[in-house]
Specification:
This protein is mostly helical and 168 residues long. The protein is built from eight helices and two strands. Strand 1 and strand 2 form a beta hairpin. The chain is elongated and about 85 Å long. The N and C termini lie far apart (74 Å).
Length: 168
């Protein structure tokens, strides 16, 4: 269905007082168009209407209109910065399309996620992800653990062979 057709159905649902089907339709549209800021605003407004402050904060996070109360409720419901960043369900970096308040808010969240995670945030086609490791030193711990693991496996095999020979 075309986006406009689904939005017309959402409006019709709301006129009849059918909030739940309207939410489901907006959710489906949001999944199809994750970076559409207008859809996100509509979804935030609907959650405001029903009193779900945390979800209003989630979907209004990239909007200039989100209240401090909504953003705080969203942050309480998703305590980790990475959890909040991934919870926004965006596929591309929306910074260029945001107003100054929402842009600054997203910038702070990306900075917090970079500090919280193993590496800074990198924007991919699928959304925000941990970036590439900074240097070979970041991988040194994994390499040492792998070598120790291989040595332990080798010693275990030698020990098993010795026990089997001794038993026979």
């Amino acid at each position: 269905m075309a986006k406009e057709h689904v939005l017309a159905k959402v409006e019709a649902d709301l006129r009849r007082g059918h909030v739940h089907p309207a939410m489901q339709r907006l959710s489906s549209l949001n999944a199809a168009y994750p970076d559409d800021l207008e859809l996100r605003d509509r979804r935030a407004a609907l959650y405001r209407q029903v009193g779900n402050v945390a979800e209003a904060g989630r979907w209004g996070f990239l909007s200039e209109d989100a209240s401090v109360e909504e953003i705080t409720a969203f942050e309480r419901s998703c305590p980790g910065a990475w959890q909040r960043l991934l919870g926004l369900k965006v596929t591309g970096d929306p910074t260029e399309r945001l107003g100054p308040v929402a842009g600054a808010r997203l910038g702070r969240l990306v900075e917090q996620a970079g500090q919280e995670g193993p590496t800074p945030v990198a924007w991919t086609e699928g959304g925000p992800r941990p970036g590439e490791a900074g240097s070979w030193q970041d991988d040194l711990g994994c390499l040492v653990a792998a070598v120790i693991g291989l040595i332990l496996v080798a010693l275990t095999v030698v020990g098993l062979i010795t026990v089997i020979r001794w038993a026979l």
